Every structure is written in structure tokens, then in C-alpha cells.
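wait is this the right file?? whatever heres the structure
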């Protein structure tokens, strides 16, 4: 079953085309990543999914039906910009958001208590939001999106402002939600999180989809053209070697992309003539490398 479907959606602001004939589907019970550089059209696409803005052309379908505002009670939304009321307490914020999503005050209070304990902010629930750090506020916004137990959870930059420990806490919650059968969409620049969490992605650039599909299939399609090398000595062999299409050299460690058809063993032999090699590993490209490659090609 498909939970979200965008079909040839377009959105312009004056002469600027933010989303240009964009189509993709999100299957039920899936974690889906909407990726792209700044200004690619990710946030505009999300806002059209939930009716904040209306597409100029194309259509949005949710839960198998054309978009209808009555479906919004089945959706939880964590915006990129925090929407909390800073002068009132965390508890007051969450009870308000819970009631706006159809909960009774009693249910909202009970769920606030459970989620505050789960995300380790129980001691903050009676503090005003303005007294909290950005990371702590992000946790509160995260709870607000989940309080009414939505079927579809949409998160725009969910790890923004979080340190690695708290990002890991949210990651565990996201995986638990998937196990419970929820469908999750998130937009982020954190490629490491996307690679570990997502089942499928859509990469958007200048409002258009330039790459989409399952993570495993996308990575497999790139083949084994990526090499990591740890070495001591002169790294000039990378710039002199005709086998290398591009490389990132950090000094004693390099990430290399081979030209199509190049033999990695020939690169190893060339490297050993100029440096002492302690590690040479042929591997699948990271999602970050794929991201950079596709965006650069699209921009070219």
C-alpha cells in the first residue's frame, strides 16, 4: 500500500520554481528520505503534502485518496522551524498541541508524561520553553508530532540541534515507530543517518527528482568504484594516476573514485610505488558520495 504519492507536482513563488514536476511514492511502513541541497524544494514539497501550501499543478494523494484536510489527524509533523510557545511550559505546550490533534486534556497529560520520560526530559516539563537549549526544544517538538499517535510522521530536519547522544535517542524512537507499523518521511542533510535508517530515498535538486529508489539498489547500481586508502608518505600518486576520476585526500587517508572500467589492483600497485599502504579497501559508495555525484552532474 502507498501512504503518500506526489504526481507531477509543481510550485512557484513568482518567477522562482521551487518544485518542478516532482513525482514519488512512499510505501506504508517505510522510512523514506527526502534529500537535496539547500533550496532544492524539500520543504515546499512537504508543505504541499500536508496542505500548508497548494500545488500550482499536479496532485497529492494520502492513504490512497486525494488530499483532504480531514486526513490531517492521521499525520504528525515536525517542522524545520520550531513552533513552540516559548513563554509557557513544556507541559502546557504539549497539552495544547495534543488537544489541537483531537486528544482530551487528560490523555494529552498522560502521554506527555510518558514521552517526557522516554526522551529524558521529565524534569523539564514544568519549565518554560525559553529556558531550554535548542536540542531540548527539538525533543519537545518531536513529542508534539507524536502525541496523537499518527500513522504518517513527517519530520523536516529532525536531528537539527541535537548532540550525538540525543540524536541516537531519536534514532531509536524512529526505529520503534517503524516496527509499530508507522510510515516515516524525513528530510535531512545528515547522510549518515539516512544511510542507516532509510529504506528508500528521493534526491531532489532544483525542484526535480534526480535519483530515487531503494537504498540497496541505488548503491549496488554504482558498482565497486570507490576505494579508501590509508598510507604513509607521498600522496601525489593520486593526482598522477590516470585510473582516478576524483579523490578526497586528507593527508595519510584518501577516498578515491575510480574511472569506469578501471582496475582497483592497478591503483594499488601505483600507490605502493609512491607510498607505504596500511589499508586499501574497495567498497560501495557512501550515500554522501552518491549525493555529491548526482547533484554535481545535475548542476553541470
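ok assuming it is, sequence goes like this
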Amino acid at each position: 500500500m502507498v501512504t503518500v504519492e506526489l504526481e507531477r507536482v509543481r510550485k512557484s513563488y513568482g518567477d522562482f520554481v521551487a518544485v518542478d514536476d516532482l513525482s514519488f511514492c512512499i510505501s506504508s511502513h517505510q522510512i523514506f528520505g527526502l534529500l537535496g541541497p539547500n533550496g532544492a524544494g524539500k520543504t515546499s514539497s512537504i508543505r504541499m503534502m500536508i496542505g500548508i501550501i497548494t500545488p500550482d499543478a499536479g496532485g497529492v494523494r494520502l492513504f490512497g485518496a486525494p488530499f483532504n484536510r480531514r486526513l490531517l489527524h492521521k499525520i504528525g509533523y515536525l517542522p524545520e522551524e520550531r513552533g513552540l510557545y516559548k513563554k509557557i511550559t513544556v507541559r502546557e505546550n504539549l497539552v495544547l498541541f495534543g488537544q489541537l490533534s483531537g486528544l482530551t486534556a487528560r490523555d494529552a497529560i498522560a502521554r506527555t508524561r510518558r514521552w517526557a520520560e522516554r526522551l529524558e526530559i521529565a524534569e523539564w516539563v514544568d519549565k518554560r520553553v525559553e529556558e531550554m537549549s535548542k536540542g531540548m526544544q527539538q525533543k519537545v517538538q518531536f513529542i508534539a508530532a507524536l502525541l496523537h499517535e499518527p500513522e504518517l510522521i513527517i519530520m523536516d530536519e529532525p536531528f537539527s540541534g541535537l548532540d550525538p547522544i540525543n540524536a541516537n535517542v531519536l534514532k531509536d524512537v524512529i526505529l520503534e515507530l517503524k516496527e509499530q507499523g508507522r510510515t516515516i518521511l524525513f528530510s535531512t542533510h545528515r547522510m549518515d543517518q539516512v544511510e542507516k535508517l532509510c529504506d528508500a530515498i528521493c534526491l531532489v535538486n532544483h525542484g526535480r527528482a534526480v535519483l530515487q529508489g531503494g537504498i540497496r539498489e541505488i548503491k549496488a547500481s554504482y558498482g565497486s568504484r570507490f576505494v579508501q586508502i590509508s598510507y604513509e608518505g607521498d600522496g601525489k600518486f593520486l593526482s598522477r594516476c590516470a585510473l582516478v576520476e576524483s579523490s578526497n585526500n586528507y593527508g595519510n587517508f584518501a577516498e578515491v573514485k575510480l574511472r569506469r572500467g578501471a582496475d582497483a589492483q592497478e591503483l594499488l600497485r601505483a600507490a605502493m610505488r609512491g607510498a607505504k599502504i596500511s589499508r586499501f579497501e574497495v567498497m560501495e559508495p557512501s550515500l554522501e558520495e552518491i549525493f555529491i555525484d548526482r547533484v554535481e552532474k545535475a548542476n553541470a
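Residues 120 and 139 are 9 Å apart (CA to CA). so i think its the right one actually
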